[in-house]
Write a structure and sequence with these properties.
The radius of gyration is 13 Å and the shape is globular. By secondary structure, the chain is α+β, with helices and mostly antiparallel strands. The longest helix is centred in the first third of the chain and has 10 residues. Strands 1-2-3 form a 3-stranded antiparallel beta sheet. The chain has one domain. The termini are far apart. It has 3 helices and 3 strands. One of its GO terms (molecular function) is acetyl-CoA carboxylase activity.
């Protein structure tokens, strides 16, 4: 397994967001939530308190 495969596996195991329906699946509790629920709680799962990854731009908001 090379570095590119390891990196792509790490990225695919992160939280998944379906761009067409705007639903996010939590990687910890596997709950499916609307993205506005996550945004309202500042990128924290309302069901299990998992902290989603955010970029620096979103952190500054």
């Amino acid at each position: 397994m090379n570095f590119a495969n390891i990196f792509s596996n790490m990225m695919s195991s992160a939280e998944t967001k379906d761009e067409q329906s705007n639903w996010i699946k939590c990687p910890k509790c596997l709950a499916l939530m609307y993205y506005k629920e996550i945004d309202a709680k500042r990128s924290v799962c309302p069901k299990c308190d998992h902290h989603f990854r955010i970029n620096a731009e979103k952190r500054e908001e």
